[in-house]
Amino acid sequence: MALNIKQTAVAGTMESSDVMVTVKPAEGQGLVIHLQSNVLTTFGDQIRATVQEVFSDFGIRDAEVFLVDKGAIDCVIRARVQAAICRASGEGFNWKGEDK
Hints:
There is one protein chain. By secondary structure, this protein is an alpha+beta fold. It has one domain (9-93): Ribosomal Protein S5, domain 2. It contains 2 helices and 4 strands; from the N terminus they run βββαβα. The protein has helices at residues 40-57, 74-89; strands spanning 9-11, 19-24, 31-37, 63-69. The protein has a 4-stranded mixed sheet, with helices on one face. Strand 1 and strand 2 form a beta hairpin.
C-alpha cells in the first residue's frame, strides 16, 4: 500500500541526538531531500540513504523532506521520518497497510 503526502507534517525535536523532520507534498518532483547536520561530512550519505529507504518502504516517490540533524543515530532518523510520513499522509500510524 503506497501512501500519499497530503499535507506538511513535522516529527522530532532540535534536542541533541535527535532530528527534526519536515515532510511536504511535492507532486511530480520526485524525492527532494534537504539536510542540515553537524555531522554532514561524515554521515550525510548514510542519512540520505536512510531517508530514501523509508520513503521507498512506504511507496512514496514524490515529497520534499527537510532534516535538521543534531547527531541522531540511524534508528532515530528512521523513526522520525516514519512518523512525519504517517502524519503527512493523514493515515496516522497505519503504515504498510496494517490495521489501526
